[in-house]
Design goal:
The protein is α+β, with helices and mostly antiparallel strands. It is 62% helix and 15% strand.
């Protein structure tokens, strides 16, 4: 203090310094008591804050999800941060104080990583819930599936990035790990190449996931044919895609496979799809009755979307002709059911009305009889 400083300020400053020296004596008992009191105060404040926020009149979906998902991790971050402040205010001469600070910082970094992961999960789930892919509006359902796919894939990529950054920061808090890493890299420069080759599949799938999310080559619920298997995109993770096969099997495909190989996507731009039904009949079969019967079956079928139902003769061989019925349905599942319904209905119609015109093999009886007579005469 300067000579011009008033006496009462000088006394106050000296008293404050005395309290400060008494506040952090070289004793772990006092520090632990302070930490316990600070933790109780933080937890009480956190609890009161949650109650106030949950009772606020304006509650957005994201805010509700953040309060639900990040409550525990946020409390842990606050508690560890306050503890770290108390440890840093303690005297450096205290036994094991440096180790305690380092451990607290390490746990704080891990807790902050946990908090970031929960926030990413809250944002992803909020976007998915706000864009349901159900309902009769096909265009809205397609847009919802596109948004869901982008949210999930980007959310998983962000989570992987948060984990990598969090682990990097956690290891950086430990001097021993930094020294070991520096010594290892200095003594073996090829280690970087080894790590790069080892991480290539992970990084490749991560980049493939981001590319698929942006280009929308596949979305949740898309009907695809992968490795000659027909199914739906059931799940998209940060490293692989699960395809639900029609017979309830699950085909697990790496994300990078969809970038490097061709595949069929039946619902890329819309869910409506065309289906075909083929029948072989005799040449004498009239086509017009079959065409009228196919139209009648379509009109009575709930799977038909009332867009297309045409019948043509598409092939002919020396034994029979081929009839093709081209049908349209709202999605692949309805198309399958409509094709089966049409095939069964036309077969029943031909068997009932024109059984004599089913495919048959013709034989020239007169030529066979003449050949037999020549054989008998000889």
């Amino acid at each position: 203090m300067t000579p011009s400083t008033p006496a009462f300020i000088d006394v106050w400053y000296t008293t404050l310094l005395g309290w400060s020296d008494a506040l952090y004596p070289a004793s772990w008992t006092i520090i632990c008591a302070e930490i316990a009191a600070a933790v109780l105060a933080v937890m009480l404040t956190h609890r009161i804050g949650l109650i106030v926020l949950r009772r606020m009149p304006v509650r957005l979906p994201l805010s509700r999800r953040l309060l639900e998902y990040a409550s525990s991790s946020g409390r842990a971050v606050l508690v560890l941060y306050v503890t770290l402040m108390i440890l840093h205010a303690a005297p450096d001469e205290l036994h094991r104080i440096a180790m305690a600070r380092r451990v607290d910082l390490l746990v704080l970094v891990l807790a902050a990583t946990w908090l970031c992961l929960r926030c990413v999960r809250a944002i992803t789930d909020t976007i998915v819930d706000e864009n349901p892919a159900t309902g009769a509006d096909i265009a809205r359902g397609t847009q919802a599936r596109r948004i869901q796919t982008q949210a999930r894939v980007l959310g998983q990529s962000a989570s992987a990035l948060v984990i990598l950054v969090g682990l990097g920061l956690a290891f950086s808090t430990m001097p021993l790990m930094r020294q070991i890493g520096a010594t290892f890299l200095a003594s073996a420069g090829v280690a970087g190449l080894v790590v790069g080759f080892a991480a290539k599949p992970v990084l490749g799938n991560l980049l493939a996931g981001m590319q698929l999310a942006m280009t929308q080559a596949i979305r949740l619920g898309d009907v695809v044919i992968v490795e000659q298997e027909w199914g739906w995109i059931d799940e998209i993770t940060g490293t692989y895609v699960v395809v639900k096969i029609w017979d309830e099997r699950r085909l697990v495909v790496p994300l990078q496979w969809f970038i490097e190989h061709p595949f069929q996507n039946w619902t890329r731009n819309q869910t409506a799809i065309l289906g075909t039904v083929f029948l072989w009949v005799d040449y004498r079969m009239p086509v017009e009755p079959v065409r009228r019967e196919a139209e009648r079956i379509c009109r009575n079928a709930p799977e038909w979307n009332q867009v297309l139902c045409v019948t043509h003769v598409t092939d002919a061989t020396e034994h029979a002709m081929q009839l093709r019925v081209l049908l349209s349905a709202g999605d692949a599942g309805r198309s399958w059911e409509l094709r089966c319904r049409m095939r069964e209905g036309l077969l029943d119609f031909i068997q009932r009305e024109y059984p004599q015109f089913l495919p048959r093999v013709r034989t020239d009886v007169e030529r066979v009889v003449a050949a037999d007579a020549r054989h008998a005469a000889g």
